[in-house]
Design goal:
Helix content: 25-40%
Pfam families: YrbL-PhoP_reg (PF10707)
CATH class: Mainly Alpha
CATH topology: Transferase(Phosphotransferase), domain 1
CATH architecture: Orthogonal Bundle
Number of domains: 1
Largest sheet: 5 strands, antiparallel
Radius of gyration: 17 Å
Distance between the termini: 47 Å
Protein name: PhoP regulatory network protein YrbL
Shape: globular
Strand order of the largest sheet: 1-2-3-5-4
Organism: Oxalobacter paraformigenes
Structural class: alpha+beta
Length: 192
């Protein structure tokens, strides 16, 4: 059995702690205490649903499975690095757009931004919270890639948007407007 407590801690939120796999730095694990694992349980169910539907994990981290420990529940998933062969976490969209960006970098960001939106709509991938801290920017050989690393799946008791595309589209569009507003407030040159 793997001892995840020996893995380097790479992030800590209100509910979860994130650890990088020292043997395979392309993977990480997120853990919640069992008594505070609502979000983790929801994401496990949602990731399994996406797999059954054949949804590609192009703009969300690849999901490798759930981890059960005595007092914690976890998810093993892809670690999104800032660039290939790096062990540094990708910056959040907030951090990325706060920098002084060139016109070319803004154009590249805009392209990646709308690719993420197209992906969410095409595959009906529902964000629970499309917050500026839940989306990161990774540099790839083919350009920027925005990845929603946290907050996937509907939070409703009966998440109809997960199952009905027209409701999913409305929810994605509504959350996208809020994200766009926040990013334009940080850097008005984005003109999203």
């Amino acid at each position: 059995m793997t001892d995840y407590t020996n893995w380097p801690l790479i992030g800590q939120g209100e509910e979860r702690s994130c650890y990088l796999n020292p043997d395979d730095p392309t993977r990480m694990a997120k853990f919640s205490p069992i008594r505070q694992s609502t979000q983790t349980r929801r994401e496990i169910r949602y990731f399994n649903t996406l797999i059954k539907k054949g949804v590609p994990f192009d703009f969300i981290p690849r999901y490798y499975g759930e981890i059960h420990e005595k007092d914690r529940l976890g998810i093993e998933q892809e670690f999104i690095a800032d660039e290939p062969d790096s062990f540094r976490a990708a910056p959040t969209v907030s951090d990325y757009v706060s920098r002084s960006l060139t016109a070319e970098e803004i154009a590249e960001f805009r392209k990646a931004y709308f690719q993420l939106k197209d992906y969410l709509l095409r595959w009906n991938v529902i964000p629970a919270n499309l917050a500026i801290s839940n989306v990161v920017v990774s540099k790839t050989p083919s350009g920027l890639r925005l990845v929603m690393v946290d907050g996937v799946g509907g939070t409703e008791l009966i998440p109809l948007a997960n199952w009905f595309r027209f409701l999913g589209k409305r929810k994605i569009e509504r959350k996208w407007v809020k994200l766009t507003r926040r990013l334009n407030a940080i850097n008005s040159r984005l003109n999203l």
